[in-house]
Structure formats: structure tokens, C-alpha cells
Amino acid sequence: MRIIVSAGGTGGHLYPALALVDYIKSQEPDAEFLFVGTTDRLESKVVPSLGYNYRGLHVKGLVGNPLQKAKNAMIFVNSLKTSKKILKAFKPDIVIGFGGYPSASIVLAASQKHIPTMIHEQNSIIGLTNKILIKRVDEIICCYEKAYEQFPKEKTKLLGNPRASKVWENDLKDVHDMYNIPKGKKVLVIVMGSLGSRSVNQVMIDTLRRMKDKDYHVLYVTGKDYYDEMIKATGDLGDHIHIVPYIDDMPSVLSSSDVIVSRAGATTLAEMTSLGSCSIIIPSPYVVANHQEYNARELADKGAAIMVLEKDLNPSHLVGTIDGLMFNDEKRNALKKASKALGKPHACEDIYKEIKNLLNRG
């Protein structure tokens, strides 16, 4: 099987694509892959470092003033020409887009050449690239009911995010062992994404001080850029408040902690629901189309998480919400059960089957 995969711009697009490719490779060692992305964003560095073939497209979004939009439209037309050359050289059996502007170019070009196409939508709100491609692709995979309702039912499957499968690949460790926390003590984890959040960190200074005498341990992830200033700002909080810049093995931490406080990125929520985590979600209000809030609402409306909007965030409210879960086993277990029910741990396997079905239909 020869597959072109395109994911552009962000880890939210890229890492689900990589998870699916890794799974297909495990099932078909002779399969050949070509990644198509940008020339200068995250994927242009990560994918080649993993040993996969990579082609970068010069492409920009249709944003800005009218003149800039016109220039970017011409860039897009040129990227279509480049995409067709890529297709002619690689001769893929299928082209799969995971979002980002390069996906629009290569998937649209494949559709014009009658090559089977599939797109994957990670969020509950459909991204601009996938909106452009809806009518042109053969198959659509999504992760949320809200997105499923917006896509044409005859070619859409609700199969989840490939990252939901990835969390089960390695042996999961215990957070108590990882951070020298006494066995039997409950653990709260607070993480605002790999880069952290300055706005949330400011609220957390007082929040952590209020939790220093609680009968549970706190693992607070500042983000690499904010670690030193948070250590300086919080001072001595005792031996049960653990402040770290980042976490290398997030699946292990998610699986063995009692409560998680996090953002609502698509990958994070896919991993948490696959593992059945009990979570308090603070969606970032700084993302395109406010999609994190819509992601979080899907879980909150089904009793699978508690959502706290950043505009309502304050130390008193946050500590009260946390304590309401840490000291209530019944409520915490109910959230875990509902979260697990939304999880798609077989997402990679199910999407791979759909790829095979699509190719067999052709």
C-alpha cells in the first residue's frame, strides 16, 4: 500500500497522523508513506527526524486584506500544481488529510485525479481546510458527535482520534513511582499543554498555596518557559506539591492519577477518554473558532468532565471544584465511567479498516 498523509501547522493535526501511520506500518511493514506538509512548521522538522519521506508545500491561508488574500490564492493555485507533480511521482493508493493548509492542496489535487481520498477531523468544530474538502473527498472520519452532525452521513464515520490508541502501546507506569509519591495518596495533576499557560499560571500561584495543606498530592506542570518564574513565585509549598516544567510520559500520568485539570486540545481529550480519566477542563479561549470550548462541552454535556471557562477561573472556585472530586469517590468514579464510555481506544484499527474498505470499493 502506498499512502500520502498530510498534516500541517500544529501538533493537533500532526500527531494523530503519525499515530495512524505507525499503526498501519505495524500491520503492513511493506507499506510506503509520504508526508506532505508545510516548508517551515512543526511537521517539517518532526517527520523527517522519524525517518519518513517528506515533501513541503509553500502554501498560506486565505487571510488578511484583499490584496494579501489574492496573493495567497495564487500561492494556493501553485501548490495545487506542485501537489499534482507529487502525486504523479509517488503514485499513492490513497491520500489522507488531517487538516492544515497543505492538506487542502494535496487532497484536492488527489480528488481531481480520481485518487481515493479521506480526511480526519480532530475537533468538534470543522476546520476551514476540511470545510473546503467536504464535497470532494470519498470518506470522512471524525471524533465528536457535533462534527458528525455537520458532515454528510453517507460518507462519514465517527471513529475517534488515532492518539486514543497510541496511549496503550507502551507499558503504563504509576505516577506514584514516577514522582516519589507515597502509595495510597490521591494525586491531582494540573497541566495546561506542553507550553503551559501564563494566564492560568497566574491564577495557580494562589491556588497552589491554598492546596498546600490538603490530604492529596499535586503535580503541577508549568510549561518549560514558565518553570523558573513559577518556582520563584510560589516559594516553599511543602513536599506534597510537585512543580515540574513538563511530563515526558503523559499517558502513564493520566492513567494513574485521580483527577486531571487540563486544556481541551483534541489529542489530550482523546487520550483522557481512552483511559477514562476524571477531568476538570479549562478550554483555551485563544484558539481558532474557540474549538476547545466546543470540545470540552461535548464531554461536559455527557457527564464525562467538568468544564470551567477561563473567564470564570479563580483560586477559590478552582480549589472548591477540585476538592469536590478529590474527596468524593462516587462523583469521581461516575466521571471516569462516563469518560471511558466516550473513549475510542481502537481508533487506529477502525480507521485502518475503513481505509481498506475504501480501497476495496474502488
TrEMBL record:
HAMAP family: MurG. The lineage of its organism: Bacteria, Bacillati, Bacillota, Erysipelotrichia, Erysipelotrichales. UDP-N-acetyl-alpha-D-glucosamine binds at T10, G11, G12, N123, S194, I247, Q292. It comes from Intestinibaculum porci. This is UDP-N-acetylglucosamine--N-acetylmuramyl-(pentapeptide) pyrophosphoryl-undecaprenol N-acetylglucosamine transferase. Its main location: membrane. Keywords: Cell cycle, Cell division, Cell membrane, Cell shape, Cell wall biogenesis/degradation, Glycosyltransferase, Membrane, Peptidoglycan synthesis, Transferase. Its EC number is 2.4.1.227. It comes from the Bacteria. Residues 3-140 form the Glycosyltransferase family 28 N-terminal domain. Gene3D superfamilies: Glycogen Phosphorylase B. Cell wall formation. Catalyzes the transfer of a GlcNAc subunit on undecaprenyl-pyrophosphoryl-MurNAc-pentapeptide (lipid intermediate I) to form undecaprenyl-pyrophosphoryl-MurNAc-(pentapeptide)GlcNAc (lipid intermediate II). It is found in: Cell membrane. GO terms for cellular component: plasma membrane. GO terms for biological process: carbohydrate metabolic process; cell division; cell wall organization; peptidoglycan biosynthetic process; regulation of cell shape.
